[in-house]
Write a structure and sequence with these properties.
Rossmann fold, 322 residues, binds S-adenosylmethionine, alpha/beta, binds ligand LIM22CUA
């Protein structure tokens, strides 16, 4: 695996990339540019940070601050805000993935490890179930042979591995501590990296997941292209993200809840109103199920489908690199 990159380098690289793709560079001699064109030339490309308009260069830093600030309270806030429903959504993502033994998973924007831990539990349960059935079929094993089959943790994953990649050191720190406390060791690795410039070779992973992460990325199209690049042919892209509620009554209640309750919870529990204001605003700025499906197709994925959950509060999008 490539080495993790430092965040200082990251912000520099981000600024340079924005510059490269912004069309700011012109091959025209300066003297030929009219004053109007010159003033356009100077304007940095803009995007949104929640409902605020910011330059593309600024957005990454602002998102970084949000997750640096919420990291310690991230897990408890998710349970409180969703009354535990986010756990069901994440379980459903794993059910949809249904990883086979040997699956190499890349979990981008993996934060505190919720998807990675579920993946390890899932493949372990699958593998152990298979082992049990095999052992039952073999009549004459000694107890030592049986015990050995249960002891090797690495074996119990059937060669599956998960790589958690996130841009935020604080989120990864919490994730690593959780892994240590819960005894996860084998088949798990953590790397600091940007979804827009993944520090991995081409055609490396069987599955790419991103849960509640892509909404925060500055250039979503770039992140999708990177997902496509690092997947093996036949590999699968799975994204769990907030989406569009289509029922008008639920939508009204959800808006009330989002804008009246969530920032208050953020202030009371995490001492951070602004980050939770950003959360609810960023949800409203994210494309609908159909629009996001098109973006995934534009990145080269095929057989793109989605499933809306909890009236469309979130959706799981799936696509294949074929
Ligand atoms: C900074 O960025 C982030 C930080 C993070 O910590 C996390 C993330 C990423 C996010 C996640 C991993 C998941 C986080 C989850 C959510 C944002 C919440 C998702 C919302 C729901 C599952 C519930 C949606 C609610 C509705 C459909 C409407 C029902 C709402 C009501 C009945 C309450 C209506 C509210 C009012 C009228 C305002 C005044 C009410 C009060 C003061 C009472 C407060 C009430 C409650 C606390 C009850 C809450 C009720 C529910 C949660 C309903 C759940 C039930 C169902 C949906 C069936 C990140 O990016
Ligand atoms: C809401 S959390 C999701 C964490 C985890 N996937 C989950 O479902 O609980 C969003 C995560 O996206 C990460 N993130 C934001 N922009 C990113 C980027 N450009 N590349 C990688 N990770 C990013 C944040 O640091 C944060 O950990």
């Amino acid at each position: 695996m490539a080495a993790p990159r430092s965040c200082g380098l990251w912000s520099y690289a981000r600024a340079m990339r924005s510059y490269r793709f912004s069309g700011l560079r012109s091959s025209w001699p300066g003297s030929l540019l009219s004053p109007r064109l010159l003033s356009q030339e100077k304007r940095a490309p803009e995007t949104h940070f929640g409902f605020e308009t910011v330059s593309e260069e600024e957005k990454g830093g602002k998102v970084y601050q949000v997750f640096e600030s919420v990291a310690k309270k991230y897990d408890v806030m998710n349970d409180m805000m969703s009354l535990g429903i986010h756990r069901v959504w994440k379980d459903l993502l794993l059910r949809k993935m249904h990883p086979l033994p040997g699956t190499q998973l890349l979990d981008v924007a993996g934060g505190t490890g919720d998807i990675a831990f579920r993946f390890l539990n899932y493949v372990q349960a699958q593998y152990q179930g298979k082992q049990k059935r095999k052992l039952r079929a073999q009549q004459n094993l000694s107890w030592e042979e049986i015990a050995k089959k249960y002891q090797n943790e690495e074996d119990s994953l059937g060669g599956s591995r998960v790589m958690v990649c996130d841009i935020n050191r604080e989120m990864l720190k919490i994730g690593k501590q959780k892994a240590f406390d819960r005894g996860y060791k084998a088949g798990l690795a953590w790397v600091l990296g940007d979804a827009e410039e993944l520090p991995f070779d081409d055609d490396k992973f069987d599955v790419y997941t991103i849960a509640f992460g892509i909404r925060n990325v500055t250039h979503i199209d770039q992140a999708l292209q990177e997902a496509h690049r690092v997947l093996k042919p036949g590999g699968r892209f799975l994204c769990l993200e907030f989406s569009q509620v289509n029922n008008p009554l639920i939508s009204r209640l959800y808006d009330l809840y989002s804008f009246q309750v969530i920032p208050v919870l953020g202030e009371v529990v995490a001492g951070d109103w602004k980050s939770y204001q950003y959360l609810v605003e960023s949800i409203r700025k994210f494309p609908s199920q159909e629009e996001f499906k098109e973006m995934i197709e534009d990145a080269g994925f095929q057989k793109v489908t989605y499933e809306s959950l909890t009236s469309g509060i979130v959706a799981i999008h799936s696509g294949f690199k074929l």
